Amino acid sequence: MKELLNLMEYRPSVKVIDATLRDGGLVNDFYFTDEFVKALYETNIKAGVDYMEFGYKASTEMFDENKFGKWKFSKDDDIRAIVGDNNTNLKISVMADVGRCDYKNDIINKADSPIDVVRVATYLNTIPAAVDMIEDAAKKGYEVCCNIMAISNGQESDLRAALDILGKTPVDVFYIVDSYGSLYPEQIERLAGIYSEFAAKYGKKLGIHAHNNQQLAFANTIEAVGDGVDWLDATYSSMGRGAGNCAMELLLGFLKNPKYKPYYAIQFVEQYMNKLKAEGVVWGYDLQYMMTGQLNQHPRTAIQFTKEKRTDYSEFYKEVVAQD
């Protein structure tokens, strides 16, 4: 049985990462107002959040800037317009997807950028490309995380090989990513054990990014905390692709570090997140996401179901089972 102290004690090594703009941006094509982004930044500072992820560093050659808001690209000048010199304890993060960014040109030296952390997102079959991105970001002076996506579809032998390769790089944090929202706490415990083995071997930290297809994002994040995972992703009102993520307001209320102040998270939800929902932005747990999560499938079919405003859930169930 898990030691209660692992869940209840104050652990200074724990870091909270706000992914609302990045993962939430997948819901509204990154069209957030500057007022929203500035308020989110200020809320994170007041709430004691450690890192704020502004969005992706997507390639403008691959993605049309006219079809997305600015946080799809997270240009340094746009970030600086929000944070200024960022003379705060809050660190700034961006995500760079393997194969979808021009990292050699778009990610400049840390000394000239408002960004502190680059999070490299990769699949198991693109680890060699991720290694090059990690080394490039570290050489430029950034903290670096590596998010291995869709691990619920991977083989344990492949995961172990990937972690062994990544461990030899200058990456700072390995991330457990439940891309499909299909994992249960018992599986998180087992995965955390595997990740911990390599983190200890190579002196790395561990993080978790959970999705809420089965309403387990918060439970899985708590499980990970008890298993020694320190870097915890969350979004306000769980805003994120499909079923969304671990709710920031839940996580801050759970953690026992006095620097985290849930009141400001609740205030932001009240003033901004509820307004987004009222304006018609759609995310969160629903039957279609539950089904893809239970079947360990990418939520793209459920996202399309939602966009088409379908309500024939039982018919959709037959469709996704047929694909399994």
Quick structural gist:
This protein is α/β, with parallel strands linked by helices. The chain has helices at residues 4-8, 20-28, 34-47, 76-83, 103-106, 127-139, 156-167, 185-202, 217-226, 248-254, 262-278, 287-294, 300-307, 313-323; strands at residues 15-18, 51-56, 91-97, 117-122, 143-148, 173-177, 205-209, 231-234.
Task: Kindly describe this structure.
The chain has 324 residues and is α/β, with parallel strands linked by helices. The chain has 2 domains: 4-278, Aldolase class I (TIM Barrel), CATH 3.20.20; 287-323, no CATH class. Helix content is 44%, strand content 13%. It has helices at 4-8, 20-28, 34-47, 76-83, 103-106, 127-139, 156-167, 185-202, 217-226, 248-254, 262-278, 287-294, 300-307, 313-323, and strands spanning 15-18, 51-56, 91-97, 117-122, 143-148, 173-177, 205-209, 231-234. The chain has an 8-stranded parallel β-barrel with strand order 1-2-3-4-5-6-7-8, surrounded by 5 helices. Helix 3 packs antiparallel against helix 11, helix 7 (156-167) runs parallel beside helix 8 and helix 12 runs parallel beside helix 14. The mean pLDDT is 96.
What is the secondary structure topology, with strand pairs?
Layout: H1 4-8, E1 15-18, H2 20-28, H3 34-47, E2 51-56, H4 76-83, E3 91-97, H5 103-106, E4 117-122, H6 127-139, E5 143-148, H7 156-167, E6 173-177, H8 185-202, E7 205-209, H9 217-226, E8 231-234, H10 248-254, H11 262-278, H12 287-294, H13 300-307, H14 313-323
Parallel strand pairs: 1-2, 1-8, 2-3, 3-4, 4-5, 5-6, 6-7, 7-8
